[in-house]
Automatic annotation (TrEMBL):
This is DUF4294 domain-containing protein. It holds the Pfam family DUF4294. It comes from the Bacteria.
């Protein structure tokens, strides 16, 4: 039985489907461009080189292969971030508008109008996302709005709706309750690293997080070490199952 998922994340203002795209198989290839990175072997002393216009130190990779996985992951963040950014903007605008509407009925009507508008505008793009991109998007929702996707749906729709959407997400090993903790979670640290560097390089439009963490302190504590082992394992399993092939470019 094929489960069609629609209206999962962006159901409240901009997130209508954080799980429908999880039905897409990971078919990404790993980039081979690993120029301008520093490689430090175990036991070596880390030397932090600051670029002229950057406050972030060079990455510390164990091998050139790790760079390819990092660049693959960066592409995932770049794809998911604009939707989380828009979610935050829409939520802020919606809240400002709702404060001026006294009638509960009119509030519900206005919310539904916004949901339908966003659904028609972004459903096709979001459905093309992969599971990894969906997981990143769910985490970025928490980063950008200060609330998990589950709590946002619960607040603007109902606890019952949020429960069933999350249950559906669990089928695809996703959870709308997932939070964003770059200070403790490796994947979240990688996401924040990608974002901060992209902001400084002008590749993504900066939008401050509504969560309280100090990334400068975090990256110093981690000594700029990049850990991509979980993605290497993921690709290895996928290749064994014959679902993806190792690309040469």
């Amino acid at each position: 039985m094929i489960i069609k998922l629609k209206k999962l994340l962006y159901i409240y203002i901009v997130l209508i489907s954080a799980v429908s795209f999880s039905q897409i198989q990971e078919t990404d290839s790993l980039p081979i461009n690993d120029d301008d990175y520093v490689f430090v072997k175990p036991g070596d002393t880390l030397v932090v080189n600051l670029n002229e216009f950057s406050l972030l130190p060079k990455h510390k990779f164990s091998s050139r292969e790790d760079v390819r996985y990092y660049l693959w992951f960066r592409r995932k963040v770049f794809r998911a971030y604009p939707y989380a950014q828009l979610a935050s903007e829409r939520l802020d605008s919606l809240n400002v508008r709702l404060e001026k509407i006294e009638s509960k009925r009119k509030r519900r009507q206005y919310t539904k109008i916004i949901q339908k508008y966003i659904e028609g505008e972004f459903t096709d793009q979001i459905k093309k996302m992969t599971t990894t991109e969906g997981r990143i998007l769910i985490k970025l929702i928490h980063r950008q709005t200060g609330e998990t996707a589950f709590d946002n749906i619960k607040e603007l729709r109902s606890g019952w709706k949020a429960f069933w959407y999350n249950t559906t997400a669990n089928v695809f090993k996703l959870s709308l309750k997932t939070e964003y903790h770059p200070e403790t979670e490796n994947e979240d640290f990688l996401i924040e690293d990608v974002l901060q560097r992209a902001f400084q390089e002008g590749k993504l439009k900066p939008q401050p997080s509504k969560l309280n963490f100090d990334f400068t302190k975090i990256i110093i504590e981690r000594k700029s070490e990049i850990n991509v082992e979980e993605y290497k394992l993921f690709f290895s399993k996928m290749r064994k199952k014959g679902k993806i092939r190792k690309a040469k470019d």
